[in-house]
């Protein structure tokens, strides 16, 4: 198996008025090609910062990040990102949003249209192609953002609390959608979340982070098979994983309080 | 037996009172709930209601105007009647007021367009690139606090009282405002849009033209609309200080000959032109940038 993302000794310090804050301390992590890794942690543990550093949107204080053996020193098309706040381009229609990255790659119009059509269908937005983002619900917006990220075919997809702004029902639907997409055509995905069930249901591995300083506390291999469905979360194994993760998270939260 | 009957009667009337009281309370409740419904901060009201209220406010002003003039509360020396004003309007327009309007509009447009040609690219660059902001922003902020009208004597001294002086005043008045406000419009583009575009293959040059500019265009258009309104005030001041034609000049002329009704016509004309231009630009903005509204 080849390694997709390799994080080596990454630390990050923020300088604030009340002194330096160690956001990340000695993070070491290797993500395999086509692996789905969830990064789970309480708010403020630096999990989003880690993802942003991998995405090249922030720099680390020390350590290095490699993506397919290339040193990361800024954002790039090999690492697509989906944010919690959708970040759709409001002046573009749904299909224009999805085609944006392809257009940047100078892919011809016909191919672009074909690819966009495929991803529109994949995320279940057929019939909404020509709408502007303002006319979409939160869940639909996030479908577009996901399609936009996927259509560009990055080597790694980085998801920063992608369903955090959605209501419970929509979130579950979106989790199932992402699960199906990933099972149909596996892709390296790193997802930051604070939702324990979401982390376990979707991932091959769950990385649990602790805070102050942000460190990797535990890595749990999730062996729920490759044919997961929504019902998987009712199985005994799933609940066992949930119990383990919950206990670690709880001890972390208690530490902060 | 009798006693109980009267008692029961009394209790019945009591009940009646009670129910009446209850109804009254309900009525009160209805009233207060109406106000509660309407007076909610930032709550939208139906378009028809909004339009009716807007028209009503003009009607009230006209009624007040009529009642203080026709009711002889204020002398016609100071406030002309609506009738006299209309009459003055008729004579002014048949005596070449159109050309005054034309000249004023020309001055504003010429000055404002020149200001726009410089301010749009400069504002975009100042908003996008911090070194340029560091160079230009303090200077323009400083100029902004010096009223354009204070420069009129200096400009007359330098340029004379021709068209170029008026146009220069408008440029001086609107350019710094435009640059600073457009720079802010540019800066208001969400960081996450820029970040996500980087992960989709834009470079630092692309991002300005493909993300920041299209996102801020409706705001820039709105800035232009607001500053154009200010440009109107500068041209009038310039025309009042030294000109031989224009709306401001006619207002000054009317004052010299005690024609208060003509002053009213001049001011009203300015208001009406301003309102038309503003409405038109707002309409255009909503039409062109439908995705934003």
Summarize the structure.
Chain A is of the alpha/beta class.
Report on this model:
- The complex is a heterodimer of chains A (257) and B (293).
- Chain A is 36% helix and 27% strand.
- Chain A is built from seven helices and ten strands.
- Chain A has helices at 47-55, 94-104, 109-122, 138-151, 168-184, 196-202, 236-256, and strands at residues 3-16, 19-32, 36-40, 62-67, 70-71, 79-82, 156-160, 188-193, 205-210, 215-221.
- In chain A, the strands form two sheets. Chain A has a six-stranded mixed β-sheet with strand order 6-7-8-3-9-10, with helices on both faces. Chain A has a four-stranded antiparallel β-sheet with strand order 2-1-4-5, covered by helices on one side.
- Chain A is globular, with a radius of gyration of 18 Å.
- Chain A starts with a strand and ends with a helix.
- The model of chain A has no long low-confidence stretch (mean pLDDT 92).
- Chain B is an all-alpha fold.
- Chain B has three domains: 1-38; 44-74; 82-292, MetI-like (MetI-like fold, Orthogonal Bundle), CATH 1.10.3720.10.
- In chain B, 81% of the residues lie in helices and 0% in strands.
- In chain B, helix 3 (82-94) packs across helix 11 (260-288) and helix 6 (152-159) crosses helix 7 (163-187).
- The longest helix of chain B has 37 residues, at 2-38.
- The A-B interface holds A 55-57, 74-77, 79-81, 83, 85, 87, 89-92, 100-101, 104-105, 132-134, 145, 148-149, 152, 154, 158 and B 190, 192-193, 195-202, 206, 211, 214-215, 217, 289-292.
Furnish the topology, listing elements before pairings.
The complex is a heterodimer of chains A (257) and B (293).
Chain A: E1 3-16, E2 19-32, E3 36-40, H1 47-55, E4 62-67, E5 70-71, E6 79-82, H2 94-104, H3 109-122, H4 138-151, E7 156-160, H5 168-184, E8 188-193, H6 196-202, E9 205-210, E10 215-221, H7 236-256
Parallel strand pairs in A: 3-8, 3-9, 6-7, 7-8
Antiparallel strand pairs in A: 1-2, 1-4, 4-5, 9-10
Chain B: H1 2-38, H2 47-70, H3 82-94, H4 97-128, H5 130-144, H6 152-159, H7 163-187, H8 191-199, H9 206-241, H10 247-256, H11 260-288
Helix pairs in contact in B: 3-11, 4-5, 4-7, 4-9, 4-10, 5-7, 6-7, 7-9, 9-10, 9-11, 10-11
């Amino acid at each position: 198996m080849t390694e997709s993302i390799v994080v080596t000794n990454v630390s990050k310090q923020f300088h604030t008025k009340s002194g330096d804050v160690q956001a990340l301390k000695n993070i070491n992590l290797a993500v395999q090609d086509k692996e789905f890794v969830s990064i789970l942690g309480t708010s403020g543990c630096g999990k989003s910062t880690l993802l942003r550093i991998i995405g090249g949107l922030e720099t680390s204080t020390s350590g290095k990040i490699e993506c397919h053996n290339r040193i990361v020193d800024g954002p790039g098309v090999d690492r697509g990102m989906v944010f919690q706040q959708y970040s759709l381009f409001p002046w573009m229609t749904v299909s224009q949003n999805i085609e944006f990255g392809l257009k940047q790659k100078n892919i011809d119009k016909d191919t672009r249209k074909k690819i966009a059509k495929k991803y529109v269908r994949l995320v279940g937005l057929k019939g909404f192609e020509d709408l502007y983002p303002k006319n979409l619900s939160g869940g639909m917006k996030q479908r577009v953002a996901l399609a936009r990220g996927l259509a560009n075919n990055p080597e790694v997809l980085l998801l920063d609390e992608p369903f955090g702004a959605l209501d419970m029902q929509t979130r579950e639907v979106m989790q199932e959608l992402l699960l199906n997409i990933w099972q149909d055509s596996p892709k390296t995905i790193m997802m930051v979340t604070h939702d324990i069930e979401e982390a376990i249901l979707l991932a091959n591995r769950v990385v649990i982070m602790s805070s102050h300083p942000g460190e990797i506390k535990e890595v749990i291999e999730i062996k729920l098979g490759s044919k997961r469905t929504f019902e998987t979360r009712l199985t005994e194994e799933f609940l066992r994983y949930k119990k383990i993760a919950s206990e670690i998270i709880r001890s972390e939260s208690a530490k902060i309080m | 037996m009798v006693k109980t009957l009267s008692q029961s009667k009394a209790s019945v009337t009591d009940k009646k009172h009670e129910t009446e009281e209850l109804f009254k309370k309900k009525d009160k409740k209805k009233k207060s709930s109406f106000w509660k419904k309407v007076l909610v901060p930032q709550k939208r009201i139906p378009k028809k209601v909004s339009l009716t209220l807007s028209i009503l406010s003009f009607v009230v002003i006209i009624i007040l105007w009529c009642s203080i003039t026709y009711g002889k509360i204020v002398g016609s020396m100071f406030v002309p009647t609506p009738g006299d004003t209309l009459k003055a309007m008729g004579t002014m327009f048949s005596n070449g007021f159109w050309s005054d309007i034309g000249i004023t509009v020309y001055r504003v447009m010429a000055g404002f367009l020149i200001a726009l040609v410089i301010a749009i690219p400069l504002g975009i660059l100042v908003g996008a690139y911090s070194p340029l902001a560091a160079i230009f922003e303090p200077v323009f902020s400083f100029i902004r606090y010096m009223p354009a009208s204070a420069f009129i004597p200096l400009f007359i001294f330098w340029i004379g009282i021709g068209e170029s002086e008026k146009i220069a005043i408008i440029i001086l008045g609107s350019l710094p405002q435009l640059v600073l406000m457009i720079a802010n419009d540019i800066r208001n583009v969400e960081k996450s849009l820029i970040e996500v575009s980087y992960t989709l293959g834009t470079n630092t040059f692309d991002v300005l033209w493909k993300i920041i500019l299209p996102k801020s265009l409706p705001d820039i258009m709105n800035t232009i609309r607001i500053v154009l309104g200010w440009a109107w005030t500068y041209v009038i001041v310039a025309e009042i200080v030294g000109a031989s034609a224009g709306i401001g000049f006619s207002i000054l002329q009317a004052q010299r000959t005690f024609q208060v009704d003509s002053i009213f016509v001049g001011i009203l004309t300015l208001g009406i032109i301003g309102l038309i231009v503003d409405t038109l630009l707002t309409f255009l903005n909503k039409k062109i940038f439908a995705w934003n509204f």
